[in-house]
Amino acid sequence: MQIIRFAELKAEPWRNGGGVTREIARQGSENGGFDWWVSIADAAKAGDFSAFPGMERVLTVIEGELLLLSVDGAEQPLEKYRPYRFDGGAATAAKLPTGDIRDLNVITRAGAFKGFTSIVELSRKRAHPVFEGQFGVLLQGQAKVSQGGGEPVELGRYDAVAGSDVDSPEILGRGFLAVVSIDPVETPA
């Protein structure tokens, strides 16, 4: 079972100085870039986003109240726990009308992978499995993860669990979990 502890992730400063990003996971590509990337970012000031041409983004505010995003000139208010999909190459800028925010980013190579983020409420009675190609990120509350009847392991806030189809890890508790899915795009033969 793979647990990615948020407290152990290195904070990388943004090029524009407006915040930091902590990488949860990434898959590289042959050209030295990446095919997909999952991260948590802290935005401390308004400004332009880095462009990722040929990529698709799903951004979810996970702490703070509101992020006002401008994507190719169209304003989009993003409220907490409401994932928003947009073109990674679009001219994108953010305003923070209610203060600093933290967001969950899923960036995938268009045509090769499709990223999804779902927010689920955890239960103490029914465990939530995390399958291959998924990450479960504890957003708030208290939860434990177990695999194959093994001893449950406590999760901290923003800890991530990598999924598996062989004896999938299961998360049980109270609170909210982001389930990030990275699905390969099927190309017609």
Features:
single chain, 189 residues, 7-stranded antiparallel β-sheet, 6-stranded antiparallel β-sheet
List the helices and strands and how they pair.
Blueprint: E1 2-4, E2 11-13, E3 19-28, E4 34-43, E5 47-48, E6 55-63, E7 66-71, E8 74-79, E9 84-87, E10 92-95, E11 101-109, E12 113-122, E13 128-129, E14 134-146, E15 153-155, E16 160-162, E17 170-184
Antiparallel strand pairs: 1-16, 2-3, 3-4, 4-11, 5-10, 6-9, 6-11, 7-8, 7-10, 12-17, 13-17, 14-15, 14-16, 14-17
Stretches where pLDDT is under 50 for at least 5 consecutive residues are none
pLDDT averaged over residues? 92
- The coarse silhouette is globular
Count of alpha/pi helices: 0
Describe this structure as you would to a colleague.
With about 190 residues, the chain is mainly β. It is built from no helices and 17 strands. The chain has strands at about 1-5, 10-15, 20-30, 35-45, 45-50, 55-65, 65-70, 75-80, 85, 90-95, 100-110, 115-120, 130, 135-145, 155, 160, 170-185. Strands 1, 12, 13, 14, 15, 16 and 17 form a 7-stranded antiparallel sheet that branches. It has a 6-stranded antiparallel sheet with strand order 2-3-4-11-6-9, with no helix packed on it. Strands 5-10-7-8 form a 4-stranded antiparallel sheet, with no helix packed on it. Strand 2 (about 10-15) and strand 3 (about 20-30) form a beta hairpin. The chain is globular. The mean pLDDT is about 90.
